[in-house]
């Protein structure tokens, strides 16, 4: 990971205000990094952070934004995922959400699903430094026989 990280910010509808509050509290730290957000979360984050933030907006989660973000993780273009998901509400794109969380684990990127974990991530002494996450070697998996 470079010194300047690419941080993905995602929130389900009932958690968007929680994420906005967290982003406001951590604005100085977050604006030093590149941000990638799904749809309406990205619009809200742009409103919260103003012109001082570099924000890339993807499609809305249910319209493919979760999958776009998963692809970026697989391409090693995302360093950290902050995803305030709502465990109390069923999501029509729940399989996409699970796939996003799965790919983040496969590629060993830090994931925060609540404010406490997100606070620990952005206050970590590892955040402002270059960091090389351990990546699993998938060559055996890729070379397996399909018989």
Q: Indicate the CATH architecture.
A: 3-Layer(aba) Sandwich
Helix content: 40-55%
Measure the end-to-end span: 38 Å
What are the low-pLDDT stretches, counting only 5+ consecutive residues below 50? none
Enumerate the strands of the largest sheet in spatial order, edge to edge or round the barrel.
Answer: 3-2-1-4-5
The CATH superfamily is identified as Methylglyoxal synthase-like domain
> Under CATH, the topology is which?
Rossmann fold
Overall CATH class: Alpha Beta
Give the tally of structural domains. Answer: 1
Relative strand content = 5-15%
Round the Cα radius of gyration to an integer and report it.
15 Å
Mean pLDDT: 90
What order do the helices and strands follow? EHHEHEHEHEHH
Architecture overview:
With 147 residues, the protein is of the alpha/beta class. The chain has one domain (6-142): Methylglyoxal synthase-like domain (Rossmann fold), CATH 3.40.50.1380. The protein contains 7 helices and 5 strands; from the N terminus they run E-H-H-E-H-E-H-E-H-E-H-H. Strands 3-2-1-4-5 form a 5-stranded parallel β-sheet. The radius of gyration is 15 Å and the shape is globular. The mean pLDDT is 90.
Highlighted features:
147 residues, single chain
Ordered list of secondary-structure elements with their pairings:
Layout: E1 6-11, H1 16-25, H2 27-30, E2 34-37, H3 39-49, E3 54-57, H4 65-74, E4 80-84, H5 94-106, E5 111-112, H6 115-122, H7 139-142
How is this structure best summarized?
The protein has helices spanning 16-25, 27-30, 39-49, 65-74, 94-106, 115-122, 139-142; strands spanning 6-11, 34-37, 54-57, 80-84, 111-112. With 147 residues, the protein is an alpha/beta fold.
